[in-house]
Design a protein that fits this description.
Strand content: 5-15%
Bound molecules: flavin mononucleotide
Strand order of the largest sheet: 1-8-7-6-5-4-3-2
CATH topology of the largest domain: TIM Barrel
CATH superfamily of the largest domain: Aldolase class I
Order of helices and strands: HEHEHHEHEHHEHEHEHEHHHHHHH
Number of helices: 17
CATH class of the largest domain: Alpha Beta
Helix content: 40-55%
Radius of gyration: 20 Å
């Protein structure tokens, strides 16, 4: 009898047929706390930040923490990275025990200390090796395996991504996310979604378009222009996680969703602070929420002053008092 196909293949297929808006993996951002907040705002499919396979296999505490999934992380994938196919396959087997929704291989990180050593986007320098590596990982786990990559390493005039997408599909990869920049571009320049469209045209597995989706309108435009199965949102979610409900409102409901109210913005600040302190304690939990607060407070009256006060406050109680005082002042003014 042939081995049973893992049920998550079917689940992935069904979810990816519904034009998903996926939370991008982001180091030091898409942890258990932030994934939950995004889920509550509609971003139910997400990924852990990338996890180094050597750290994972050596038992490094930090790497093991990153693959820890909560009960409500049902639609969360674990992303791994490394430069050695066998170690990637071994780490994939290990990560699969955490029962993620699927496993993703990072073939897109441009950072020189990672790509320069052949991991992340370094794989794009040798598409043959990348395809064999993907094949090896796929054959080592029963879960779906996806790949997140870029359009090329740079500065190719003809990007390898189209041929690569076809070959990754042949290798058994279940879906591909394309960050539509080259590795050499890092995060600069504009993402060219037309490459996602070209890759999508040659495969039957879902292709997810990524890069510069900053609003619901962008999400719709990216889908309309590329015909891709879904979009992935990174940086905009850090400052505006409401993008998930706004994008779904437009993509599925066909209408614009009202932006968050001031009260919602303050409530999210408080919720995120509390959850991070519960997870990490003080003052680290407060400090690592700061990168989000600035965006959450965007557009509020006196936002600059509010940010300044919060940036100087390391205690949870102090931050909550600052936010409550703003609410009181705003109610009094109304
Ligand atoms: C702070 C930060 C951390 C990131 N970490 C990862 C990562 O761990 N794995 C990965 O595949 N991409 C990572 N990325 C890239 C994003 O997933 C995404 O591909 C990129 O930001 C482009 O999408 P955007 O324009 O929506 O931000 C990171 C990006 C940022 C800004």
């Amino acid at each position: 009898m042939p081995p049973a196909v893992h049920p998550n293949f079917q689940k992935l297929k069904e979810l990816y047929a519904q034009t998903p808006v996926i939370l991008a993996p982001m180091e030091d951002v898409t942890d258990v706390v932030f994934r939950r907040l995004c889920r509550e705002l509609g971003g139910d499919i997400g990924m852990t930040e990338f996890v180094n396979v050597e750290g994972l296999l050596r038992g490094c505490k930090n790497a093991r923490r990153k693959i820890r999934l909560a009960d409500d992380d049902q639609l969360t994938a674990i992303q791994i990275y490394g430069s050695d196919p066998e170690r990637l396959a071994e780490a994939a087997r290990f990560a699969a025990e955490a029962e993620p929704f699927f496993l993703d291989i990072n073939c897109g990180c441009w950072v020189p200390k990672i790509a320069g050593r052949g991991a992340g986007a370094g794989w794009l320098r040798n598409p043959d090796a990348m395809v064999s590596m993907a094949k090896m990982v796929v054959s080592n786990v029963s879960l779906p395996v996806t790949v997140k990559t870029r359009i090329g390493y740079g500065p190719e005039s003809d990007m390898p991504i189209v041929d690569l997408a076809r070959r990754l599909e042949d290798a058994g990869v279940a879906a591909i996310t394309i960050h539509c920049r080259t590795a050499q571009m890092g995060h600069s320049g504009a993402a060219d979604w037309s490459w996602a469209q070209k890759a999508r045209e040659v495969v039957s597995i879902p292709v997810i378009v990524n890069g510069d989706v900053k609003s619901a309108a962008d999400a719709k435009r990216a889908i309309d222009e590329t015909g891709c199965a879904g979009v992935m949102v990174g940086r905009r979610a850090i400052e505006h996680p409401w993008i998930f409900r706004e994008a779904y409102g437009l993509l599925r409901g066909g209408s614009s969703v009202a932006p968050p109210t001031a009260e919602e913005r303050i409530a999210l600040c408080k919720r995120h602070l509390r959850a991070n302190v519960e997870e990490r304690g003080e003052p680290y939990g407060v400090r690592c929420t700061r990168r989000h607060l600035s965006g959450y407070l965007s557009g509020l009256h006196g936002a600059a002053m509010l940010r300044q006060k919060l940036n100087l406050e390391d205690s949870l109680e102090g931050c909550l008092a600052i936010l409550d005082a703003w609410l009181e002042r705003s109610a009094a003014a109304a």
